[in-house]
Amino acid sequence: MSGTEQNTAVNGRTATTTRDAAEHPRRRPRLDRGHHRRTVGDLLRTATRGRRRGLTAVVAGVITSLLAILGLAGPASAGGGHDKPTVVIVHGAWTDAGSFSEVQQRLQQRGYPVLDFANPLRSLSGDSAALALFLQHRTSGPVVLVGHSYGGAVITEAATSDPDVRALVYVDAFVPEKGESLLALLSSAGPVDPSALFDMVPYPGAPEGDVDLYLQEAAFHATFANGLPRKERDDLYARQRPITFSAVNEAAANEPAWTSLPSWYVAGTEDGSIPLELQERMASRAGAELTTVKAGHLAMTRHPTAVAKVIEQAAAATDHS
To answer: Would you call 66 helix, strand, or coil by DSSP?
Structure first.
């Protein structure tokens, strides 16, 4: 998107105001040498025995492709042939990674491998542990973590578990300090009445008093998806993913990753879920480079080009880390 940009200083960093603004193949586990791999190898040797040496490159390519599809080829390179860091997107509550789809497309067009983490939205400690395992088993080489809303708290807790994580990008996100919960951060900006915002739904196996939180329709349109076309808001409302009350009330337990990693922040100036003043305060505390866009809580959906640009800036910094 085209538009003008204005620079201001935020905690020693540059803040930019925008007024208008592939996945790495994972290593496959070895198959049972005494069964599948030997059988397929025998079949291939039998099929190719006696063939003329003039076997065409096309046929050889087909065989290689079939082996790859069947998962029987040798282990893929963990680096995937990419010379750019992997971008891992961590969505927040009441949405999923689909809200980053246009950002993802722009990054992939620029040659960045992108992975979406399916955030469980069950507990801050559990979701952070799940992300740590995801990074361990699905990435190799430099990583840029991108967190939206509650996802910001998750990447703050999990990032230091993997030395390959080189930068953090927060989009309309919570950036907690150790000992802070999301509910505490929101309450610091003004009183919060959960009964006026959420439909509370029991779920099987819940700890006593815990419930799933769904945003009520009026709150969803006014504070979460504001600024988007009505049809898109209706679709997002119907597909919202709940988060547990215990997750938004759980205090961060780890030393925050932003104390040791460079960070960037994109704030929607019309965000009705996290007040702009709170976003700016959290970004400043983390020493994050701040970009503001005229958007509600879903800045990545409203201004995907601006968000993708910030992620690229963070990725470029990994070359020097």
So the answer is: helix
Helix 36-48 × helix 57-70 angle, to 10°: 170
DSSP secondary structure string, 226-267?
TTS-HHHHHHHHHTPPPEEHHHHTPPP-SPPGGGTS-EEEEE
Q: How far is Cα 106 from Cα 1, in angstroms, rounded to an integer? A: 12
Q: Name the catalytic one among 149, 181, 263, 273.
A: 149
Residue 241 backbone phi and psi in degrees, to 5:
-105, 130
Sequence letter at residue 31:
L
For 94, which DSSP code? T
pLDDT tens per residue, range 260-313: 999 999 999 999 999 999 999 999 999 999 999 999 999 999 999 999 999 999
Report strand pairing: 289-293 vs 198-201.
Answer: unpaired
The verdict on whether 187 is a catalytic residue reads: no
Q: Letter for the amino acid at 195?
A: S
Give how far Cα 287 sits from Cα of 168, 170, 290, Å. 11, 12, 9
CA angle 136, 141, 143 (to 5 degrees): 75
pTM, two decimal places: 0.77
